[in-house]
Amino acid sequence: MSIAEELQQELMRVRREAIELHSADQVQEAIAKLAFAVTEAYSGKVPVMLTVMNGGMIFAAELVKRLDIPLEMDYLHASRYLGETSGGDVEWIVTPNASLAGRDVLIVDDILDVGTTLLSIIDACKAQGAASVKTCVLVDKQHDRKAKPGLKADFTALDAADYYLFGMGMDYKGFWRNAPGIYAVKEH
Ligand SMILES: O=P(O)(O)OC[C@H]1O[C@H](OP(=O)(O)OP(=O)(O)O)[C@H](O)[C@@H]1O
Ligand SMILES: Nc1nc2[nH]cnc2c(=O)[nH]1
Fold this sequence. Notes:
This protein is of the alpha/beta class. It is built from 4 helices and 9 strands; from the N terminus they run αβαβαβββαββββ.
């Protein structure tokens, strides 16, 4: 079997055997509910939303359509998993283009796991002189390994159990970000 065929078989097996934690409909419902809270929090403001690539892109696209505020959109790319299922140091691949000085910044990402990534991005935004920095995640993974005890995002759509997750922007070895719900990789 070629390497490409082996990979394709592994990816299909992972998808087939995955445990569905939140269906596509549940995800959409949770995002719609969250959008009301975000809209309310930024009423009267002109925030800049920073999408954390790659994982945050699908959640951000779903969320932003439902935000009834004048929003500027920008992105950054920071990664500490780099296609692996356990994380290392945060690596900055692309920094935001927008000037953040004096701005209300909303960081949008797919997952708060340990929280190292979000903390590093918050620090970078504050260092640029942001007026306020809030965080918004699709999923908060439930465990006691947070970078700071009790670490939470300001806005969270859903909780998930302590599995390696994929779908809605979250990858399995770089693939399956396109899966429409939130799935746990079944361990063997
Ligand atoms: O809370 P943490 O333990 O720091 O992990 C969360 C981060 O991990 C993932 O990014 P990843 O590094 O996999 O890059 P990606 O977005 O390109 O998939 C995810 O998109 C978050 O940004
Ligand atoms: N795809 C994915 N990325 C992550 N980054 C941190 N935790 C996770 C996870 O469970 N799944």
